[in-house]
Amino acid sequence: MMPKVHRQALLPYPPEALFDVVHRVEDYPVFVPHIRDVVVTPVAENELIARVQLDSAALGGFFATRNRWERPHWLKMQLEEGPLSYLQGQWRFEAVGDSGCRVTLDLDFDFANRLIGLAFSRVFGHLVGQLFDAFVQRSREVCSDKQNS
Question: What domains does the chain contain, in order, with CATH numbers?
């Protein structure tokens, strides 16, 4: 059975602002644990390749995803390269009331090597949870600053 991660948060900010925090992959090394560097290659108007360098060789060192989006509604990620055999995910941003947003991250993944998969599935799932928590925290910092200025 393929590991899955589902995380959700209700935040008091508009979908556009939250989408922008997720979409700015070049900022990830500033606030996402275990990400050392990100190289972004634009592909089309609403598509890019993000090559993510991790700070741990034990986690494969890097991975690359093809990201497609429709601002401010969703951003989809699909594995291009890396230690996983499969990675597909989607961020969704749903307006709630006048100024709130439900942010959802769904991610399915699998490792090319079953033995490595058994060893690292929980670790990878935990890292995705940390990533989601980092986005929630970053959103609070960035969006609160915008509301106060």
Answer: 4-148 (3.30.530.20)
